[in-house]
Amino acid sequence: MKASRRGFLLGGVAVAGAGVGGLAGHAATPAKATAAPADRVAFHGARQAGIATPPQQRLAFAAYDLVTTDRAALQQLLKTWTDAAAAMCAGQMVPGDSTTPAAPPADTGEAVGLSPANLTITIGFGPSLFDGRFGLAGKRPAALADLPHFPKDQLDPANSNGDLCIQACADDPVVAFHAIRNLARLGRGTVTMRWSQLGFGKAASTSAAEETPRNLFGFKDGTRNIETADEGLMNQHVWVGSESDQAWMRGGSYLVSRRIRMKIEAWDRDYLSDQEAVFGRHKVSGAPLTGAGEHDSPDFAARAADGQPAIPMDAHMRLAAHENNNGVRILRRGYSYTDGMFSDSGELNAGLFFIAYQKDPRAQFVPLQRKLAGNDALNEYIEHVGSGLFACPPGVPTSGDFWGSALFA
Question: CA-CA distance, 137 to 57, in Å (whole number)?
Fold first, then answer.
């Protein structure tokens, strides 16, 4: 698995971009250099874009480790990254000189001529950033507690965690890739990339106006996700408020990532009735097994003709439903992925790169995942192989400010 992960920067973009013609197609037919406002998502604001923003079609995600213990170097990195991210989200080149022949250009150039494609760049700080190297130990939020080991976890430490993370989402795979490539280059000597993941085909909707996407098992995914336009639900479940013990996190959110391998070949051999029982939904319509339409409310008390629960007790939707978890909800923002195949078995190395935002993982993701890990029928067909937890600070209100500046106040 490690070999294919390391190789993604060479081959992953072409795979992720296959649905839109791949790299060659973009190079041959670039979009207009000046994009319409509809192609842009504002970078500056009270909250970071990429959380409540409607999910774009493509993801480039990377986690980084700092290779310095210099607090000033960390601050400078965050300033440099913020300025570069603001420019890229506006469809501009990375600030600096890109025209002097005798020096490396400031921008790598692969996105020149492309629109911003609704690019959002979101940063997160891992628990390890607060280990004392930068004098930030006292700034670690209580909610940024290390995730516990869950039953059946098969996590690869080399593909988990990190001091910092960058989530770049766009409707063009080249634009998303360009973002993490340039930030990694700008951080050379201060950070090194720990692990990374490309994603395609958003695996959740955040609006009733969107068509609910399907995961690689062919089922509609995220039907009951939080609608980001509902400010009440967002404030209740996603945005950190005055309850936080750290003022610098108020207005931010906590990101949990999980790389979930799907055992596609085994799934494809299973009967339709079994597949539907695993999810608790009809495959084609997306309706709960107790309903006719996708958005029908599930009836968890209903019984089938044989007297058994119509939605099985170990069905994924029953176990994850907020009605069965004291009202706990999370905002899902995941993507499908494929990283080639396993050379020893010939099976696809593919699955779901799960991303969820919430105001406190201890009270939201952890109890949900503990319940799913112990009881979900879906566990026969999936395997959690990577994990990350990051504190995403509030946004950058104006130019001149930078990501996480309140940490150093």
Answer: 37
Distance from C-alpha of 240 to C-alpha of 47, rounded to nearest angstrom:
11
Determine the Cα–Cα distance for residues 291 and 324; give it in Å rounded to an integer: 18
Tell me if 166 is assigned to some domain.
yes
Q: Is residue 367 within a helix (H) or strand (E), and if so which, with residue range?
A: helix 365-375
The per-residue pLDDT for range 46-59, each reduced to its tens digit, is: 999 999 999 999 99
**To 10 degrees, the CA torsion angle through 275, 278, 282, 286?**
-120
**Per-residue pLDDT tens for 316-338?**
999 999 999 999 999 999 999 99
Residue carrying the six token digits 């639900």:
233
Instruction: Give the Cβ contact number of residue 62 at 10 Å.
Output: 23
Specify the DSSP class assigned to residue 103: S
289-320 pLDDT, tens per residue? 999 999 999 999 999 999 999 999 999 999 99
Q: Domain limits at 211?
A: 2-21+48-94+114-129+150-393
pLDDT at 120 over 70: yes
Task: Name, in order, each residue with C-beta under 8 angstroms of 386's C-beta and a sequence gap of 6 or more.
Answer: 155, 156, 159, 160, 195, 197, 257, 258, 259
pTM of the prediction?
0.90
> What's the domain count of the chain?
1
Cβ proximity of 332 and 358 under 8 Å: no
Tell me: pLDDT of 1 over 90.
Answer: no
Q: Looking at the domain assignment, is residue 73 inside a domain?
A: yes
Mean pLDDT of all residues belonging to the chain: 91
Task: State the Cα–Cα distance between residues 126 and 391, nearest whole angstrom.
Answer: 6
Using CA atoms, how far residue 308 sits from 273, 276, 279, 322, 397, in Å, is: 15, 15, 16, 22, 54
| 367 in a structural domain | yes
Asked if residue 122 is part of any domain, the answer here is yes
